Amino acid sequence: MGERGLGEFEIIDLFRERGSFRHSWVQQGIGDDCAVLDMGGGRSLLVTTDLVVERVHYLRDVITPWQLGWKAMAVSISDIAAMGGTPRAAFAAAALEPGVDQAFLEALRDGMLACAERYGVDLLGGDTSRSPQDGVLCVTLLGTAASDQVVRRSGAQPGDVAFLGGPVGLSAAGLWALTEGREASERMDPEHRQALLRAHLEPQPQVALGRWLAERGLATAMMDVSDGVLQDLGHICQASGVGALVAGEALPVDRALVQAGALGCCKEPWRFALSGGEDYVLLFTASSDRQDEIVAGARHELGIELIPFAWIEPDPGLRIFGSDGIHNARPRGWDHFG
What we know:
Layout lengths: L7 H9 L9 E3 L6 E6 L2 E11 L11 H18 L3 E11 L5 H17 L3 E9 L5 E11 L13 E5 L5 H9 L3 H4 L4 H12 L5 H9 L5 E4 L4 H12 L2 E4 L8 H8 L6 H7 L6 E6 L3 H12 L4 E7 L3 E6 L2 E5 L9
Parallel strand pairs: 4-5, 9-12
Antiparallel strand pairs: 1-2, 2-3, 3-6, 4-6, 7-10, 7-11, 8-10, 9-11, 12-13
Helix pairs in contact: 2-3, 2-7, 4-6, 6-9
């Protein structure tokens, strides 16, 4: 048996451990959702980049070119939201297989631009190249924020509550509905099935929520759920030097996921929800003293039902509370090289 290769986050750490900042205007480098650069005047520039790779992030036969363009733009915008910033400008690079037709490219462009317009982003340039086989898209996003409002992963404190900006597990269930569960999912309530497909194919970055939390100084730490709730909560805990107790079976699960589970998507929807990726809702921590204020404010001002789901503890590691007691949990989720 060959030696196990490095995982995704070990690869990131390999680069981060040798990182050093030559420029005083670098406020945050590798290790958060965005790099943070000092613009002067109390303003920061947020910079992020994301790859969308065929047969890894999308399957050509289950996503339209328009949806692909939307998703490629949305996942980078979500990183800006995760730092409490406002998205401003994008650069898009594409590696395309020979012979790709104009109709595909026009729809891809229109999806990108529709998402960019929705969130106030200008597409300013990029690059194109030929790919010998699969398509690859890369979007770099620039955003801005007041320097004293940037929310990092590293600020969670013992006694904080962890919240989700909405239901999770829907995107992973949407992938199931498009692939091995396609026939079974046809028996779902049409609105429930559509909710799963939209979550996977057309994610909606929570920019307004991120700005609301940042402007009011409510979030102590934040990131978006791209690799799975447990995985991403683990990143916040590691960056903050803390641990967390997760609600487990008490986690509210969307009815669409419950129905998908009954049709074969998963045996325990709450476990599936904690490990599914690509939800792109915000995961943040805040002082327990402000929990009622935050939940009520998000409901009345943004129309968002936040989900408190974990409590930050001083000792490292993740634990899950269930009907059979409290157990240690591995930060399960997506790892490209896992």
